[in-house]
Amino acid sequence: MKESIISIVLAAVLILTIITFDRTRNASSKTLTACYSPVIIIDAGHGGEDGGAVANDNTAEKDINLSVSLKINDILSLFGFKTCMIRETDKLIYDVSATTMRQKKNSDLHNRHKMMDEYENCLYLSIHQNKFEDSRIWGAQTFYSPNDEQSPILAEFIQSEIISLIQPDNTRVIKKTGTSVFVIYNATKPAVMVECGFISNPQELKKLKDDKYQNEMSFAISNGVINYYISEVKNGSEV
Ligand SMILES: [Zn+2]
């Protein structure tokens, strides 16, 4: 983790340099916020009535999603990013008019998606856990929106940080989401979904429930976001 700590410290220095630089620019220039620093929307998948995937020991995906998302929020906030949590507690985000489970889930997904329109400059980071019938299958995988050209770039930064920092044997590559992943598929901003691991794999489930491992996973994902941000600033793009 030493290299990663160096890398995140360098990231912090760069961010502070840019912030300082921006404060010296004249009033007619776009502000740093408008030009560079995106709001990171952190979406802890599922919640409330919707547990998501459930492991053999009854661990619900929604709880791991929330725990990892809160940690990512802490890390990115620490480094000066503006963040927006879709949920900070165990709930779905549906309209009061929704009564059936189908209506609630539908309303929830549309409301999550709407958050991308709240900020002109934002990234959407969705956190989920995977499940598969073969319990040997393991490993984190990052999915991206096929409807936004920056999304695969962001996904690649995150996937490579997860592999280099905590899963050197993971051979998974980034993948487009299909239409079934409504929020990410229909993204209007850079948007990715990180499936942190398989709760159907007993060894990986044990890790995913572990606070220290969750810290490492959150750190790797956050580092991927920071590296993406730095590369976009270097390229002179607005992110
Ligand atoms: Zn899920």
The total beta strand count reads: 6
Provide a count of the helices.
8
CATH topology value = Aminopeptidase
Mean pLDDT: 88
Could you tell me the radius of gyration in angstroms?
18 Å
Terminal CA distance reads 27 Å
Strand content: 5-15%
Morphology call: globular
SSE order, one letter for each helix or strand: HHEHEHEEHEHEHH
User: Which spans of ≥5 residues are poorly predicted at pLDDT below 50?
Assistant: 16-35
Distinct small-molecule ligands in the complex: zinc ion
CATH architecture level-2 label: 3-Layer(aba) Sandwich
**CATH level 4 superfamily:** Zn-dependent exopeptidases
Structural class: alpha/beta
Q: State the domain count.
A: 1
Helix content: 40-55%
User: Order of strands across the biggest sheet?
Assistant: 2-1-3-6-4-5
Largest sheet: 6 strands, mixed
CATH class: Alpha Beta
